[in-house]
Write a structure and sequence with these properties.
about 300 residues, alpha/beta, Rossmann fold, six-stranded mixed β-sheet, two-stranded antiparallel ribbon, 10 helices
């Protein structure tokens, strides 16, 4: 029942034809497993999808939603990116805590209270009730106005939350003392930024992640590969956006930007594969070459 839906999806998203084969081999079995979990639970199923920048997690999330909705399920598709603080809020955070917090992405730059509120709303959303979810415009580096928020109609059988560090545990205190790149060496010499980020990750983010019933991970081959894929993302954003999009980065800006993510990305690559219920390992060609399911 999925083949035509997948084929249409590949065309709509301008994906390579190989994605059809990979989706049939790796995604369809996952959809069937999720469907069984939904049917066997009286509560809303909360699914986390982890993947470093450029791994294709947003694309996978879209396909999962399409295939599950085709089976009649109500699915709420959330990105943790859409819960970034506004540019003005991050400016205040940078002034009060650390200048590096002006840059979106790391734990501490999201409105986790709002995210928890929306998750609760989804769990209690009745038929024809509507929940409004924020959207974030990365090209403008700011949250969209209320009129552009996503509107999700109940009931909701499953909430899918995707993000580059979804499910990540905090680091041990002793791990914070070692710098991992030039950004940390030059702009976080005393370690106060990474200590703040880790403290935030250990707080309300864990309250979010503790609600996960399933965790799916798209595992990149290495952090170096992540940078290459992220550069491709920025190029795509540049091509799709207007000339007035102020937050699109050139190569030097992107190199500095992605260093904000390096510490936790490496942490996820090391620790999350054993924690994930479904692990998809990616090759340098961006294709899944191995799938491991640890969930019952």
């Amino acid at each position: 029942m999925y083949s035509q839906l997948i084929s249409n999806f590949v065309d709509q998203e301008s994906l390579p034809s190989s994605y059809i084969e990979d989706a049939g081999k790796f995604v369809v079995p996952l959809v069937d497993q999720i469907a069984q979990r939904i049917l066997g639970s009286a509560d809303t199923l909360f699914i986390g999808l982890n993947g470093a920048q450029g791994t294709g997690k947003t694309t996978l999330a879209k396909l999962l939603v399409k295939l599950l909705e085709a089976r009649g399920f109500g699915i709420a598709n959330l990105s943790i990116d859409d819960f970034y603080f506004t540019k003005a809020e991050r400016q205040l955070l940078a002034e009060k805590q650390h200048p590096l917090l002006i840059t979106r992405g790391v734990p501490g730059t999201h409105d986790t209270s709002l995210l928890l509120k929306k998750i609760t709303e989804f769990r209690n959303l009745e038929s024809k009730q509507v929940c409004e979810v924020p959207r974030f415009n990365k090209a403008m580096d700011d949250r969209c106005g209320l009129s552009d928020w996503q509107r999700v109609t109940g009931p909701i059988d499953s909430v899918l939350l995707e993000g580059w560090f979804v499910g990540a545990p905090p680091q041990e205190a002793e791990d914070l003392g070692r710098t991992v790149n030039v950004l940390e060496e030059s702009e976080d010499k005393d370690g106060s930024w990474r200590e703040f980020v880790n403290t935030q990750l250990a707080g309300q983010y864990q309250a979010v992640f503790d609600q996960l019933d399933l965790l799916i991970m798209l595992k990149a081959p290495s952090f170096e590969q992540v940078f290459e894929w992220r550069a491709l993302q920025e190029e795509k954003l540049r091509n799709l956006s207007s000339l007035h999009a102020s937050a699109i980065m050139d190569e030097d800006q992107l190199e500095r930007f992605i260093q904000h993510y390096e510490r936790i990305t490496r942490h996820c690559l090391e620790y999350l594969p054993e924690k994930a219920d479904y692990l998809y390992e990616l090759g340098s060609d961006h294709r899944i070459f191995k799938a491991t399911a640890t969930s019952d």
